[in-house]
Design a protein that fits this description.
heterodimer; A: 263 residues; alpha+beta; OB fold (Dihydrolipoamide Acetyltransferase, E2P); de novo design (two linked rop proteins); five-stranded mixed beta barrel; 9 helices; 21% strand; B: 203 residues; alpha/beta; Helicase, Ruva Protein, domain 3; Dna Topoisomerase Vi A Subunit, Chain: A, domain 2; 2 domains; four-stranded parallel sheet; 8 helices; 6 strands; 10% strand
Chain lengths: 263, 203
């Protein structure tokens, strides 16, 4: 889909890269044009009027001019800056992760309104919600599905039989859950508890409201995160860099708590 | 970019290529610089080459504050007229230059050499954080100023370091954020305005 010389679009700013002395290249995710790059000129100068409106994780309306190589931002006005996302490390670190996943998993200039809506909703949940990790798991599950990587959670991927109410196996190379019998031939598969499977099904088919209402024990949340991280790693064929910071925070959080006589 | 034309001698095209690697120097600038040097004296060319080599050989990081210096500790850390009870944490050595220009800060510095950027894989372990924590163990430091840039990565870095340093019983402060001089309220973004309102001062 081609865009006219000057076009208007809203977008979430996924990331920025420095260009030359005073400019930055923005990676934007738009509702109708997919992911695209555009240059924000002069934003590194102190008097830049544009700079605050094109910060990463801002939802902004843009006026962009088509360039020979890169499109150029001519105007930008932030619609939603998600201030709480910038003020709390737990929220910020997760928002980085979400932006990175969208950046890594989507091709350039391929429209995907579902991804855009999921991105915006997730940023909203991370900014104002309390179930931050469930918001992440929901995001991961729905993103995988939208991009065609939906894990099979109802039947054994290998033999096709409906799964029984026992601990089954999570096999990323097979693309979903595998019954204990078939798992014997898949050494890389990991056990998935019944509760984790039930929660995964809810994340796949239920509304976010339903998911956020379920009380999940920390052990269950850890298990869900492990399975989905493994699945993403296999799909992406490399690590999602932001997870390193999430892990660092978790470790230092534990240290912080014990240094203060808590936890 | 810098294709060597058949008529250009190898050393010339090689120098053009090397100059082109420098930031802000395109093929035309690289050519201009090269042809200037061709016409310059042997001494001038020698002095330039020597200065370049010396910068790489003689510049080290101050073992105290991680600033670039040719003596260890650096001039600032060595200066006992400065206030040792306060450390200002910055991202890059150039930030120290900027802050020193104010002429109003008499404390110490610490250079992180970067900023937390999870999407680029840069975490606290890739910055000079351990070195900072080591300095804070001494009794004389009472306050740490977070002077990382007021953008998302700078804020994340500031929040993370604050989390690490507060349990040590030190005062952690953040540079004021809000409207820069010469700004227009009309064009300012929400975050800037919110912070400017928050940080309002009595007159």
């Amino acid at each position: 889909m081609t865009a006219p010389k000057l076009y208007k679009t809203t977008a979430v700013v996924l990331r920025q890269r420095k260009l030359g002395e005073a400019d930055k290249i923005l990676t934007l995710f738009t509702p109708n044009l997919g992911k695209l790059d555009a240059v924000a000129k002069g934003v590194r100068r102190p008097k830049s009027k544009l700079a605050g409106h094109v910060e990463p994780l801002t939802y902004t309306t843009f006026l962009i001019a088509k360039g020979r190589e890169l499109d150029v931002v001519t105007q930008a006005q932030a619609l939603e800056a998600f201030l709480p996302l910038r003020e709390e490390l737990e929220r910020t670190s997760r928002a980085f992760y979400v932006a990175e996943l969208v950046d890594r998993l989507t091709p350039e200039r391929q429209e995907s309104f579902p991804v855009f809506r999921l991105l915006l909703e997730t940023l909203q949940r991370l900014a104002t919600g309390s179930r931050l990790d469930i918001a992440l798991r929901f995001f991961e599950m729905r993103l995988l599905e939208t991009l065609g990587y939906r894990p099979q959670l109802e039947e054994c991927v290998v033999c096709g039989k409906p799964l029984e109410a026992v601990a089954n196996n999570w096999s990323v190379e097979s693309g979903g859950v595998v019954c204990p019998a078939c798992a014997r031939n898949l050494p890389m598969s990991q056990t998935i508890s019944l509760n984790a499977l039930k929660m995964m099904r809810l994340l796949q088919k239920g509304s976010y409201t339903d998911c956020s209402r379920v009380k999940t024990a920390p052990a269950l949340e850890t298990e869900l995160e492990r399975h989905l991280r493994q699945y993403l790693f296999y799909t992406l064929e490399r690590d999602v860099r932001s997870t390193r910071f999430l892990d660092t925070l978790r470790r230092s959080g534990a240290a912080f708590k014990s240094a203060n006589g808590q936890g | 970019m810098s294709e060597s034309l058949p008529s250009t001698a190898m050393p010339v095209s090689r120098l053009i290529e090397e100059f082109s690697k420098l930031p802000g120097v395109g093929p035309k600038s690289a050519q201009r610089l090269t042809y200037y040097l061709l016409r310059a004296s042997q001494e001038d060319a020698q002095a330039l080459a020597q200065a370049i080599l010396e910068v790489k050989e003689k510049i080290i990081l101050c073992s105290v504050c991680q600033n670039i210096t040719d003596s260890d500790p650096c001039a600032i850390c060595n200066n006992d007229q400065r206030d040792r009870w306060i450390i200002c944490v910055v991202e890059e050595p150039l930030d120290i230059l900027a802050l020193e220009r104010t002429g109003s800060y008499r404390g110490m510095y610490h250079v992180l050499h970067g900023v937390i950027s999870p999407m680029d894989g840069i975490g606290p372990d890739d910055l000079k954080v351990r070195e900072l924590l080591a300095r804070l163990k001494s009794d004389e430091v009472r306050e740490v100023i977070m002077a990382t840039n007021p953008n998302l990565e700078g804020e994340a870095t500031s929040m993370y370091l604050t989390r690490l340093i507060t349990p040590l019983g030190l005062k952690v402060t953040r540079l004021a954020r809000g409207l820069p001089m010469g700004a227009d309220l009309e064009y300012a973004d929400n975050v800037t305005l919110a912070r400017a309102l928050e940080g309002r001062q009595e007159v």
